[in-house]
Amino acid sequence: MNKLGMNLFVWTMSMDEDLSETLSFLKKSGFDFVEAPINDVTLEKWERIGAQLQELELGVQTCTICGPAHSLISPDEAIRRAGIDYLKKAVDCSRAVGSSILMGPLYAGFKAFTGKPATANEWKWSVEGMREVAEHAQTQGVTLAIEYLNRFEVYLLTCADDLVRYVEAVNHPNCRAAFDTFHANMEEKNIADALRQCAPYLAHVQISENDRSTPGKGHINFDEVFEALQDIGYEGPIAIEAFGPNPPELAAATHIFRPMFDSPEQLATDGLAYIKLRMSELVNERIS
Questions:
Q1: What is the SS3 string spanning the chain?
Q2: Per-residue model confidence as pLDDT tens digits over 134-144
Q3: How confident is the model over 100-114, as pLDDT tens digits?
Q4: What pTM, to 2 d.p., does this model score?
Q5: Looking at the DSSP assignment, which residues form a beta bridge with residue 35?
Q6: Per the count of CB atoms within 10 A, which of 30, 63, 98, 146 is most buried?
Q7: How many helices and strands (H and E) does the chain possess?
Q8: Average pLDDT in the 208-223 region?
Q9: Going from the N-terminus, what domains does the chain have, and what CATH number goes with each?
């Protein structure tokens, strides 16, 4: 059985708020884990949150992004080194909170564009930097799950083909692939085929609707997505990722300016019920 989780972006960007009620709600609602965003690499903070999650018996995975000041593809060697150092600290925080997976577009600066395609040097810098981070991650028992994004957010990795080539270039057992249906819906000819392409390296899946709202309420064909996951024998974690008008700084970054669900809690429970139903129906269809 796949572990099912909920990304916390509809509640927080920083995990600095008191999320006790939210975490308890998600546990009681039937989630196996939460996906916690890291943008503050204070180790003590993540140890404290880890203890809270352990008390709730709620699993955790982590995600992060690298801003322009931490980009592994910057022409400035000092910025690239800062990116490597930041990612190593994010790995340490992942271990401190109890996460064995750190996922996200770790390979480049988020929304840091040159107006040109990626160069051979940018690819080389990112691959070499990620390999160093993966070496550190291995010592901490953390797997890096690399997520490609759409062309309006990054330009180094924007499709499954890019992602597979990148993971193979890094060539490290602790560097694997993550798959987000929102970005795939924008960039792939066929989402299910893209999932199958990533299968040998797939470590994490995010279920995200085309409008970033409740899974099953938009136009993504999730029947094909779950069928592909079953076909490839994927047994890893699956998380819902959505965005709303709060927190405001995250809404601005993701261009979410209108409410698309009643509440984060409604989105979480409806999304979880939908995923469980579709996966159960698929299993029953194949048995019959």
A1: CCCEEEEHHHCCCCCCCCCHHHHHHHHHHCCCEEEEECCCCCHHHHHHHHHHHHHHCCEEEEECCECHHHCCCCCCHHHHHHHHHHHHHHHHHHHHHCCCEEEECCCCECCCCCCCCCCHHHHHHHHHHHHHHHHHHHHHCCEEEEECCCCCCCCCCCCHHHHHHHHHHHCCCCEEEEEEHHHHHHHCCCHHHHHHHHHHHEEEEEECCCCCCCCCCCCCCHHHHHHHHHHCCCCCCEEECCCCCCCHHHHHHHCCCCCCCCCHHHHHHHHHHHHHHHHHHHHHHHHC
A2: 999 999 999 99
A3: 999 999 999 999 999
A4: 0.96
A5: 7, 61
A6: 63
A7: 10, 8
A8: 96
A9: 4-287 (3.20.20.150)
What was the pLDDT predicted at 226? 97
Task: Return the H-helix or E-strand segment holding 274.
Answer: helix 264-287
Asked whether residue 287 carries a pLDDT value surpassing 80, the answer given is no
Does residue 288 have a pLDDT over 70?
A: no
Q: What share of the chain is helix, strand, coil (3-state, %, to 5)?
A: 50, 15, 35
d(C-alpha 213, C-alpha 190), whole Å: 21
Distance CA 168, CA 178 (A): 14
Residue 120, pLDDT score: 98
Tell whether omega for the bond before 200 is within 30 degrees of 0, i.e. cis: no
High-pLDDT (> 90) share of the chain, % = 91
